[in-house]
């Protein structure tokens, strides 16, 4: 019963002899080949296999000529072996053709998955069989086929390839001829998978694999190419993909938000990458992904760009990341985002400062508190820096956008108005507050962190020279008044500035520290000398000797009467210093010096910390109980207009009393809870005065810097066009400040007048360096 | 013969014609001491300074005029005010002639006096400073220049560079001061003047 389905087999013909003719030989071989091709699962015995192999070999090597029934393939044959091979080759080809023609009808009624199954099944059986047959005819392949090919014959293949060629002709093209039935079946299956169904991907892999195998290089049939795969499958597949995603993305976007779409597109792209991995040829990856990017991203880029602001406004990190990753895949995708991001940051920065200033106008702008200002700017920078790092992977273009926007709002905003010096000033004031003893920083690390943050904004300052001038002015005060938080922090800040702007930028600042430590030594030496010569000093004296060119301090132009009590110390120090450095001139900055006076007349003996002016006034009351303003002017040498503010402080603190106008009396009943009393308060108006003084310094420095730079450039170039000169000078100076072109032109005028440069003969716009 | 003429005007105590001799000379030639033609004479005779003639310069200068001094004046004046190159040469020489020997600049009021002497008469359509049509810089604009320099610029003296460039500027500027090129290397005071003149031109 088990055998009812078996096809009756022809009886095995006997193995032909060594010199058998074609008919006999082929009859034997045909039976064996057909067995291998159609009933391989039944097995082939070793004896049988050897029999077949030997027969094929014998036939090829027999040199005997046969009758005229041979089917010559062409050309003149000179040896029998050639003719023998040709006979066998033609017979095999005929067999493959007959075999496929006999089974291909079975696919006629099949569609889609069942068709693919049938095709894959037949393909597997056929190729496995053909492999064996190929080996059976090894001799034919090695000799006859090889020689034919060496002689340049086209359309002769090794037996396995021949089998593929015949499959292509008889099977593949047969099915495909019916409206690309095979490829369409695959495409429909893939579409079902895209629609979310699960499919037999192994089946597609097999069928697609057969397409790849069928591609043969026209020039060299030993090599495969992808011609069949590409034309039969890849091209229609890409087209189908385009249509599918075009329709899907349009519909999806019509019904969903851009954020949702981003997720969808991201998932789809991943899916397609996996699809290639799973069952397509890897060469399809590039085209497929490009196509998907085109349809899923480029086609909807405008919508994404439009939604970008929205995502920024609501801090939608994940969506931003997704949008960045998607748009980064197309070359033109990111630039609009960078532009919008730049605008966004700029607006955020401007808004933050506007909020700080409020609607108070110029007055409110002038009174912006440095710390609040700096914190507001930093906050905007910090937040957006995070966005760049997190959502845009720190991409250089976004970093540039951030920098550009920050540069804009840091230098010009509601607090600065058109005053370019305002931001550098506020930043310098803030830094000053940080570096003062009173900074309220408990940890050293906190201070270091705060200084690093200062540097973030510093990097964006256009007028770094304004910052430098304010900084140097503030530093000099910290040092002179001994209110610096720590030497380490000062050194750290200066090294940061040096790193950012170079040695020249911090040179003067560093010299100030050198002066400080030299002065400390000098004070010690002087003290020793005094003790040697005069015994214990009655006055505790310490000195700061500051190099004129490095310290932004100006001596007051008044004829100060040095009080008799300190005159001897003053003279001794003058002498001491001259003996050490003869020829150096000391200018005494009485306005900057501080004193401590013990009020021996009072009970308790209060200690007053005073300025030198206050001291010189108070010392008068050792000998007088009451003095008029004019007497005081006379005695101290301080002009009346400068003396009045001094007196006001003394009156206010009740150390002196003024019952009558312009008359000041000693207050014997002075009382205070504290023993040490600081009378040396800075005057309120100092700040404003400071600012305009600093700005004037900056202005003068700039004129000098511009002129010096022009001379330097001209000296090395000798001759230069005006525009090139202006451009180069601007570029060189930009590290310190942004020079205005009219200022450069004025500097050129000055240099022309001083004959450092001249106009080249006969031109107006070319300059020569005058040596 | 030219030497004898020189002797007639020269200072009694030296081989120079001084300021007195020059005034006498003007009277004899029947020209005002403020006649522009004297600047051409000064150029021809290589005068080292205002009202100063050397014998050598005098002889060479008068020889080049080829006829009597007085007769030569009208054509010399004509040439100065209409011949482009000649005007330029005399104009440039005037700066050196007018300034004090050890100074690099010309005090502003003096500079403007000399410019006023030379420039407005040369502005006509056939003048030495005629610009391409339509005529741009006119005599009234010179007054703007003078006003700008005295009242707005804060300038005390004119440099040679400004002096020299000013006539080039006149030749190329339009009446509305709109075509001025800020990127060209004009002295900055000319840039500033253009800003001033533009406003003036608009407000009428």
Distance between the termini of chain B: 57 Å
Q: Indicate the overall shape of chain B.
A: elongated
First and last CA, distance of chain A: 120 Å
C-alpha Rg of chain A, in Å?
Answer: 49 Å
| Number of discrete helical segments of chain A | 29
Please list the strands of the largest sheet of chain B in the order they lie side by side: 1-2
Q: What is the level-2 CATH architecture name of the largest domain in chain B?
A: Orthogonal Bundle
Which class of the largest domain in chain B in CATH terms?
Answer: Mainly Alpha
Share of residues in strands of chain A = under 5%
The two chains with the largest interface, and their residue counts, are:
A-B, 16 and 18 residues
Tell how many strands the DSSP assignment of chain A holds: 9
Coarse morphology of chain A: elongated
Strand content of chain B: under 5%
**CATH-derived topology of the largest domain in chain A:** 5 helical Cullin repeat like
CATH homology group of the largest domain in chain B: Cullin, PONY binding domain
Could you characterize the architecture of this molecule?
The complex is a heterodimer of chains A (771) and B (204). Chain A has 771 residues and is mostly helical. Chain A has six domains: 22-64 and 79-178, 5 helical Cullin repeat like (Up-down Bundle); 239-328, Up-down Bundle (5 helical Cullin repeat like), CATH 1.20.1310; 333-515, 5 helical Cullin repeat like, CATH 1.20.1310.10; 516-580, no CATH class; 590-682, 2-Layer Sandwich (Ribosomal Protein S5, domain 2), CATH 3.30.230; 687-769, Orthogonal Bundle (Arc Repressor Mutant, subunit A), CATH 1.10.10.10. Chain A has 29 helices and nine strands. Chain A has helices at 22-38, 46-61, 80-103, 112-136, 138-150, 159-176, 181-194, 201-214, 227-255, 258-279, 284-297, 301-313, 317-327, 335-357, 361-366, 370-391, 396-411, 422-435, 444-460, 464-480, 487-501, 503-534, 564-580, 612-620, 629-636, 640-652, 686-717, 722-733, 741-753; strands spanning 594-598, 607-611, 626-628, 656-657, 663-666, 676-678, 719-721, 757-759, 766-769. In chain A, the strands form three sheets. In chain A, strands 1-2-6 form a three-stranded mixed β-sheet. In chain A, strands 3-5-4 form a three-stranded antiparallel β-sheet. In chain A, a hairpin with a 5-residue loop joins strand 4 (656-657) and strand 5 (663-666). In chain A, helix 18 (422-435) packs antiparallel against helix 19. The longest helix of chain A has 32 residues, at 503-534. The radius of gyration of chain A is 49 Å and the shape is elongated. Chain A starts with 21 loop residues before the first helix and ends with a strand. The relative contact order of chain A is 0.03. The model of chain A is unreliable at 1-6 and 65-80 (pLDDT under 50). By secondary structure, chain B is mainly α. Chain B has two domains: 2-81, Recoverin, domain 1; 101-203, Recoverin, domain 1. Chain B is 59% helix and 5% strand. Chain B contains ten helices and four strands; from the N terminus they run H-E-H-H-E-H-H-H-E-H-H-E-H-H. In chain B, the strands form two sheets. In chain B, strands 1-2 form a two-stranded antiparallel sheet. In chain B, strands 3-4 form a two-stranded antiparallel sheet. In chain B, helix 8 (139-152) crosses helix 10 (188-203). Chain B is elongated, with a radius of gyration of 19 Å. In chain B, 30% of the residues are buried.
């Amino acid at each position: 019963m088990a055998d009812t389905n078996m096809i009756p087999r022809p009886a095995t013909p006997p193995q032909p002899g060594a010199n058998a003719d074609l008919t006999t030989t082929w009859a034997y071989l045909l039976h064996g080949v057909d067995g291998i091709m159609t009933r391989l699962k039944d097995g082939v015995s070793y004896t049988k296999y050897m029999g077949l192999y030997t027969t094929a070999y014998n036939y090829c090597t027999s040199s005997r000529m046969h009758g005229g029934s041979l089917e010559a393939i062409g050309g003149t044959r000179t040896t029998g072996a050639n003719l023998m091979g040709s006979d066998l080759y033609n017979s095999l080809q005929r067999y493959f053709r007959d075999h496929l023609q006999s089974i291909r009808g079975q696919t006629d009624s099949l569609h889609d998955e069942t068709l693919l199954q049938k095709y894959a099944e037949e393909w597997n059986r056929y190729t496995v069989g053909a492999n064996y047959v190929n080996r059976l005819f090894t001799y034919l392949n090695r000799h006859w086929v090889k020689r034919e090919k060496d002689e340049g014959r086209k359309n002769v293949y090794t037996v396995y390839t021949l089998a593929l060629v015949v499959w292509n002709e008889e099977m593949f093209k047969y099915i495909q001829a019916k409206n690309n039935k095979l490829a369409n079946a695959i495409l429909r299956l893939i579409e079902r998978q895209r629609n979310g169904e699960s499919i037999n991907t192994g089946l597609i892999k097999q069928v697609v694999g057969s397409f790849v195998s069928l591609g043969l290089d026209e020039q060299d049939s030993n090599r495969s190419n992808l011609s069949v795969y590409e034309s039969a499958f890849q091209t229609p597949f890409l087209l189908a993909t385009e249509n599918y995603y075009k329709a899907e993305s349009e519909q999806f976007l019509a019904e969903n938000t851009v954020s949702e779409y981003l997720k969808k597109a991201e998932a789809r792209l991943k899916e397609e990458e996996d699809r290639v991995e799973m069952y397509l040829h890897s060469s399809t990856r590039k085209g497929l992904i490009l196509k998907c990017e085109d349809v899923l991203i480029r086609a909807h880029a405008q919508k994404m760009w439009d939604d970008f602001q929205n995502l920024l406004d609501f801090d939608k990190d994940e969506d931003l990341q997704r949008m960045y990753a998607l748009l980064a895949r197309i070359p033109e995708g990111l630039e609009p985002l960078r532009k919008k991001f730049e605008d966004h940051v700029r607006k955020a920065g401007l808004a933050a400062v506007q909020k700080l200033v409020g609607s108070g106008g110029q007055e409110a702008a002038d009174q912006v508190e440095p710390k609040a200002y700096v914190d507001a700017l930093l906050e905007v920078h910090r937040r957006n820096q995070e966005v760049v790092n997190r959502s845009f992977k720190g991409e250089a273009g976004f970093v540039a956008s951030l920098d550009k926007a920050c540069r804009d709002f840091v230098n010009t905003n509601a607090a600065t108005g058109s005053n370019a010096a305002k931001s550098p000033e506020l930043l310098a004031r803030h830094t000053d507050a940080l570096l003062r003893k009173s900074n309220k920083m408990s940890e050293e690390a906190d201070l270091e962190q705060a200084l690093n943050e200062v540097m973030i904004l510093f990097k964006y300052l256009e007028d770094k020279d304004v910052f430098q001038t304010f900084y140097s002015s503030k530093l000099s005060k910290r040092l002179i008044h001994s209110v610096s938080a720590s030497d380490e922090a000062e050194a750290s800040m200066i090294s940061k500035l040096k790193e950012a702007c170079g040695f020249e930028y911090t040179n003067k600042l560093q010299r100030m520290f050198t002066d400080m430590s030299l002065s400390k030594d000098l004070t010690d030496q002087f003290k020793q000398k005094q003790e040697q010569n005069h015994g214990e000093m009655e006055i505790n004296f310490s000195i700061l000797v500051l190099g004129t060119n490095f310290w932004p301090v100006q001596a007051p132009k008044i004829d100060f009467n040095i009080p008799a009590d300190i005159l001897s110390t003053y003279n001794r120090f003058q002498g001491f210093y001259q003996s050490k450095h003869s020829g150096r001139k000391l200018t005494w900055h009485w306005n900057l010096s501080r004193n401590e006076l013990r009020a021996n007349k009072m009970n308790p003996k209060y200690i007053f910390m005073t300025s030198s002016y206050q001291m010189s006034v108070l010392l008068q009351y050792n000998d007088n109980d009451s003095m008029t303003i004019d007497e005081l002017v006379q005695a101290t040498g301080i002009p009346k207009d400068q003396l009045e503010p001094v007196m006001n402080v003394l009156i206010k603190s009740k150390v002196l009393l003024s019952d009558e106008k312009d008359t000041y009396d000693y207050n014997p009943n002075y009382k205070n809870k504290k023993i040490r009393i600081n009378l040396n308060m800075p005057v309120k108006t100092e700040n404003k005065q400071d600012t305009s003084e600093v700005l004037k310094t900056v202005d003068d420095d700039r004129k000098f810097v511009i002129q010096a730079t022009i001379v330097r450039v001209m000296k090395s170039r000798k001759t230069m066009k005006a525009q090139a000169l202006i451009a180069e000078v601007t570029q060189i100076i930009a590290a310190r400040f942004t020079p205005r072109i009219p200022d450069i032109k004025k500097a050129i005028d000055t240099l022309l007048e001083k004959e450092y440069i001249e106009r080249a003969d006969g031109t107006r716009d070319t300059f020569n360096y005058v040596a | 013969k030219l030497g004898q003429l020189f002797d007639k005007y020269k200072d009694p105590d030296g081989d120079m014609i001084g300021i007195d001799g020059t005034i006498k000379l003007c009277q004899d030639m029947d020209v005002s001491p403020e006649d522009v033609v004297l600047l051409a004479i000064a150029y021809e005779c290589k005068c080292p300074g205002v009202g100063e003639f050397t014998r050598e310069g005098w002889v060479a200068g008068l020889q080049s005029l080829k006829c009597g001094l007085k007769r030569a004046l009208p054509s010399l004046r004509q040439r100065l005010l209409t011949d482009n190159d000649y005007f330029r040469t005399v104009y440039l020489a005037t700066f050196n002639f007018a300034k004090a020997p050890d100074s690099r600049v010309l005090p502003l009021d003096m500079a403007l006096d000399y410019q006023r002497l030379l420039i407005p008469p040369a502005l006509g359509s056939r003048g030495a400073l005629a610009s391409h049509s339509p005529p741009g810089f006119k005599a009234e604009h010179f007054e703007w220049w003078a006003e700008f320099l005295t009242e707005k610029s804060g300038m005390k003296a004119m440099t040679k560079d400004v002096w020299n460039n000013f006539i080039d500027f006149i030749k190329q500027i339009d009446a509305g001061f709109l075509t001025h090129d800020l990127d060209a290397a004009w002295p900055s005071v000319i840039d500033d003047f253009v800003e001033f003149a533009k406003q003036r031109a608009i407000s009428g």
